[in-house]
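subagent[fold] <- orchestrator: predict structure for attached chain, return tokens only, no commentary.
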Amino acid sequence: MEAYSFFLNDAGRVRSGWRLGLFVLTFVILLFLLGTVGRVLFVIGDLLHIPSTPYLENIVFRLIFLAAAIIAGWICQYWLEGLPWRALGLYLHPGWLRDLLIGSLIGALSLAIAALVAFVAGGLRFALSENVMLFVVARGLVTTAFLLMFAALAEEALFRGYPLQTLTRAHLTTLGVLLTSVPFGLVHLRNPNVAAGFTFTNTALAGVWLAAAYLRTRSLWFPLGVHWSWNWAQGAIFGVPVSGLVVSDHPLMQSIDKGPAWLTGGSYGLEGGLCCTIALLLSTIFILRTRLVSATPELLKLTSEKKPKHHVDAPYTLPYLPDYVHTLLFPPVLSGVREHTK
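subagent[fold] -> orchestrator:
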């Protein structure tokens, strides 16, 4: 029984640590394969003299990242936990559009709070963009929204998708929030103009903020709304760098940074300063307490139990593997594992 308990939990599922590791491995493999396909297509396009732009390349990269995260999550939840697609939280469940819209409103207002704190403290000043046609600004708002929507969805699928969800099913929610928020903060340290201390702290805190949004609805639509609209309001409305990056050439407003950098974030943008910390804390408390959104009974069940019951077309079993593979994985209880996991 030692090998059984090492690989499987008391519900007959592969243990959460193994599930998380297999997800990461699957994601990396898929990202490499899909990325290779993308690079080949761009090379072919270049040979055929098909024009490309940095914007198109950015969209394709986000789509590859998103596809790798979603496919890896679906593979792991189906083969390791016997769960249907809808458990991932991206299907059109009742109220999905409402969750997305309310999340978008909360994200934009939360960013506005950060901007207001910086403005009241004298750190930032704003003025409407001059000498830019309304059409150009409107086009910038739309194209930036399109890009940031895909970028946010890719990050939500990776960090608030299967990793957080599978640990939540294992009743390790706090650990899940930690293991998804810390890497979320670390990956942003590679961005330009990193603000010492605040970049990691605020981005990890944003991971907690977005995890709270997911846990409130057990769906990715609500955190997606919160995430993309924060970035969009920051870059396309207020004209502030988003995590060190200029995302819009023609924002609605231009920002003037008067410092200090510890308050406004300097060249990294609001996310590198104390004003962001204050806004994220207030918004997280609001999300945890609001009754504007809630989880559907099905999604709550699919993400709260180690082995949730659900309707499927066929009973779940571990994928078939040759006897010698099962013997290597579960040598003392070969037949018991197969029977128990039906």
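orchestrator: received. Logging for downstream: Residues 94-309 form one domain. The first strand starts at residue 124 and ends at 128.
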